UniProtKB/TrEMBL annotation:
Protein name (database record): Branched-chain amino acid ABC transporter substrate-binding protein
Keywords: Amino-acid transport, Signal, Transport
Domain Leucine-binding protein: 57-206
Signal sequence interval, chain numbering: 1-21
Gene Ontology biological-process annotations: amino acid transport
Domain of life: Bacteria
Annotated family: Belongs to the leucine-binding protein family.
Organism placement in taxonomy: Bacteria, Pseudomonadati, Pseudomonadota, Alphaproteobacteria, Rhodobacterales
InterPro entries xrefs: ABC_transptr_sub-bd_PQQ (IPR022478), BCAA_transport (IPR051010), Leu-bd (IPR028081), Peripla_BP_I (IPR028082)
Record bears the keyword Transcription regulation: no
Organism: Paracoccus hibiscisoli
Length: 399
């Protein structure tokens, strides 16, 4: 009888072998994350020094998430991690394109993002996971680019809505001397006009260089900041536009008048925050921290969301064909969850991802915009940023 049982088992195994051999291999969906590191001044605080895996950690979590569903759908996901400098970015992107990768997540500044999007052309869909320039969503928009990072206009509008809800309409605007600071200041000027605030005074803090993290640096700033903000027009709040990270972090508690600070320091508008716990955020934070052994940053979240957009499209279409995925991402049927309380979609007029803006302090999320009283005929999220009637973006009728 034992021989008979063994024979039956051997026969079953023999029958199973051809079936296993015939099972199709998973469809591989390839992407890349290209991070362009531009060595500049270190941040004011050593706590803000960028980790070596900035952005890449978010990509790794996204691939894990995509594969969780993909293994049941016969799909496999991968994302190549590439670091470059402004001088080598073009060559690295060319290599990725020649390798057949059609989804590229970019972590770069405004000018580099635009140049690389032009280089990619119709060979790849580009996900802008860092650049905030409103021009990239306006006059310089590109059909092949999805803007996952919120624009400066979205960040400014999110903060402005909250300040108007607080009945703090008088703003003292302090901006830096770098081009990105000026661009952020422009966004705050537009937001003030849009929501009925009034900028009572503006001042520019000129970056004169020098060490900012020396032993005596805080002593110099402690004496400098009160004098710099002295005799300002009567205001409710100080708004800072300091994307270059030169001065804003020094302003809280050092202004001449006892006023709150917002913008680049104090109450800061962000796409994500490591203390966010609502709408499943705790579970998301825990998974990231187990993977990366550090708190998440905005670049990580924006990279994660970029690759989750690809994964969501693959799941919903049950396809690994890049052209099918691109078309679905840009369709009215697409949305993706982002742990922000509502589905995130892509605006058809500038390819900006609609998303709430978190208003954060160092340790928690104070509020989330859009605020309840700001309504919109299409989507409340379209109260943040450049709406369809105001857009300067003109896509070709046929990509």
């Amino acid at each position: 009888m034992l021989k008979g049982i063994i024979g039956l088992l051997a026969g079953a195994a023999a029958l199973a072998q051809p079936a296993a051999a015939q099972s199709p291999d998973p469809v591989l969906i390839r992407a890349a994350v290209l991070r362009v590191d531009d060595p500049g001044l270190p941040p004011i605080s050593r706590l803000d020094l960028p980790p070596a895996d900035l952005g890449f950690a978010g990509a790794r979590l996204a691939i894990e998430d995509n594969d969780t569903t993909g293994r049941f759908m016969g799909q496999d996901f991968e994302a190549e991690e590439v670091t470059a400098t402004p001088d080598t970015a073009e060559a690295e992107l060319a290599r990725l394109l020649d390798d057949g990768i059609e989804f590229v997540v970019l972590l770069a500044d405004d000018a580099t993002t635009l140049a690389l999007a032009d280089q990619a052309g119709d060979r790849a869909m580009v996900f802008n996971a860092m650049a905030r320039g409103d021009n990239l969503r306006g006059a310089d928009c590109r059909f092949n680019t999805i803007h996952v990072a919120p624009s400066r206009a979205m960040l400014a509008d999110g903060l402005a809505q909250f300040l108007m809800w607080k009945n703090w309409p008088r703003w003292f605007l302090i901006h830096g001397s770098h081009p990105q600071d000026q661009a952020m200041a422009d966004a705050y000027r537009t937001a003030a006009a849009k929501f009925g605030a009034r900028i009572v005074e503006e001042r520019e803090f000129e970056d004169t260089g020098g060490a900012r993290r020396t032993d005596s640096g805080h002593v110099q700033v402690q004496a400098q900041m009160p004098v710099f903000t002295q005799r300002a027009a009567e205001h409710d709040i100080v708004i800072t536009a300091d994307e270059a990270d030169v001065f804003a972090a020094h302003l809280p508690y050092l202004t001449w008048d006892p006023r709150p600070v917002a913008g680049s320091a104090g109450l800061v508008p962000r796409s994500w925050h490591p203390a966010m716990e609502a709408w499943g955020g705790t579970q998301f934070q825990n998974r990231f921290e187990r993977l990366a052994a550090r708190p998440i940053r905005e670049a990580d979240y924006q990279t994660w969301l970029s690759l989750r957009i690809v994964g969501e499209a693959a799941t919903r279409t049950n396809s690994g064909d890049p052209e099918t995925l691109k078309a679905f991402i840009l369709s009215d049927d697409f949305d993706v969850a982002g742990f922000k309380g509502q589905a995130l979609t892509v605006r058809d007029w500038d390819h900006q991802v609609r998303q709430p803006i978190l208003l954060t302090t160092g340790v928690l999320t104070t509020s989330v915009s859009p605020q309840d009283q700001y309504l919109h005929q299409t989507s409340q999220l379209d109260t943040l940023g450049i709406d369809r009637p105001e857009t300067q973006c003109q896509f070709p009728e046929t990509p």
